[in-house]
Amino acid sequence: ARQGLPRGGNRLNLIDTLRAAAPWQTLRRRDEPRAGRTSISIRLEDLRIRRFQQRTESTVIFLVDASGSTALNRLAEAKGAIELLLADCYIRREQVALITFRGRSAELLLPPTRSLARAKRQLAGLPGGGGTPLAAGLETAMELAVSIRRRGQTPFLVLLTDGRPNVTREGIGGRSAAESDAIQAARLIEASALSSLVIDTGRRAEPFSRNLAARMNAHYLPLPRADAGQLSQAIRAGSARSASP
To answer: Containing H/E element for 208?
Structure first.
């Protein structure tokens, strides 16, 4: 409710109008002696109108580092978080998507969906191991986020990684060049104002992961022993912030 006149399609909010007028009734009766004790004095400044807020559908994009020896643990937690999030998608009007990066490239495994059965089928045989093409993953996620926005929805990016890229955008090995490419991709995400969360899954907090989150303007969360419940709670909180007007 906000102050205003009920015209031009605006509807009067009677309850809030009465609440605005109520504290002034004693003074107004003194100024308006002809008014009865049972009457309520309503003035223009008391009027409140309804203003409706439209909820936009949001999509959580999981970008999962599926490389290296600890990939299985990360993927297991991502699967659990996705399933927990899907459980209340109908209430929260959220969809989820899944992108993984490993070897020399990134792959969209699960386009935006609310289907728990479909998500489980795609997650069941998710492979792991190989190099870490982080820049390719970020670029793929950015492309998906742009397409989601074009449909009038709100994307929220969740990156799960141990912060050790070693494959460049062109699929060539080399840690220094791979880190530079990842930072460039992160800056594009920041420029696009894409809300995001970086979850550092390394055994220790990785300085590069924190730096990457800063370049993305993302919330950084080190969770070396995160369980699905913790991940789901952090993701829901971040998604709610991204959908706020």
So the answer is: helix 207-216
Neighbours of 158 (CB within 10 A): 28
Do the beta carbons of residue 160 and residue 201 sit within 8 Å? yes
> Alpha-carbon distance 154 to 60, whole Å?
9
**107: β partners:** 100
Q: Write the pLDDT tens digit of every residue in 57-76.
A: 788 898 988 887 456 666 67
Helix pair 175-191, 134-150: axis angle to 10 deg: 20
Instruction: Using only the alpha carbons of the chain, give its radius of gyration.
Output: 25
Strands (DSSP E) found in the chain: 2-3, 48-49, 58-65, 94-102, 105-113, 154-161, 196-200, 219-222
Residues with Cβ within 8 Å of 54's Cβ and at least 6 positions away in sequence, in order, are none
Residue 206 pLDDT exceeds 90: no
Residue pair 191/145 in contact by the 8 Å Cβ criterion? no
Q: Return the sign of the alpha-carbon dihedral for residues 165, 168, 172, 176.
A: negative
Tokens linked to 160: 């799960």
pLDDT at 109: 87
Residue 186: closest CA among 161, 154, 223 = 161
Three-class secondary structure assignment of 3-48 = ECCCCCCCCECHHHHHHHHHHHHHHHHHHCCCCCCCCCCCCHHHCE
Mean pLDDT lowest among 14-18, 28-32, 63-67, 209-213: 28-32
CA angle (167, 168, 172) in 5-degree steps: 70
